[in-house]
Amino acid sequence: MPQQLSSGFLNAIQNRRTIYGLTKKTILPDPQIVQLVQQAVREAPSAFNVQSSRVVILLGKQHDDYWNQIVPASLRAVAGESAVEASKGKLAGFANGVGTILFFEDEALIKGQQQSFPQYAAGFPLWSNHHSGIAQIYTWVLLESEGYGCNLQHYGGLTGETLKKVYNLPESYKLQSEMVFGYPEAPAGEKSYMNDNERVIVFN
């Protein structure tokens, strides 16, 4: 039984790949998607159990508006119309998906930890990133296991402030990434691996 369990987990993480060819074809109803994300985020460990990850799920029109309006407007404001034109195909591909999961970290909680444990103050921002990364990978693997394709984007430096205004989010929320998901119409590309011995070093 333990070997079967570990094989199942390994298979799940091996299947987690970046997929760009997405459509809106239905796999799960929205409430089940929300439940999966809630479960993934709930189980993500965090330093001192601060639980600083916050997630916003955009579905339907909200997802479409993000990639068709909010991101282009933010990109236009900092880089001009030529940057929007150059990104048009990519952004349309994201909009073709079912939804977008926005991963935030609540910096107010991080600052509170720094004040409560000043001897570890320098570590909390890094540990916050670790916590968010785990929440993201848990979510990605769960969605992949249900048949979805996903890709991870990082437009937060452009759109984070706008999202706070549009969705009335706390000022302390910092956007880490956007996970686009949908029905995978095209497979992931080939993936190359470094030699395991170059990445995992053993002393015994």
From TrEMBL:
One of its GO terms (cellular component) is nucleus. Gene3D superfamilies: NADH Oxidase (3.40.109.10). GO terms for biological process: cellular response to oxidative stress. Keywords: Cytoplasm, Nucleus, Oxidoreductase. InterPro entries: Frm2/Hbn1 (IPR033877), Nitroreductase (IPR029479), Nitroreductase-like (IPR000415). It is found in: Cytoplasm; Nucleus. Its main location: cytoplasm. Residues 13-183 form the Nitroreductase domain. Belongs to the nitroreductase family. This is Nitroreductase domain-containing protein. It comes from Malassezia vespertilionis.
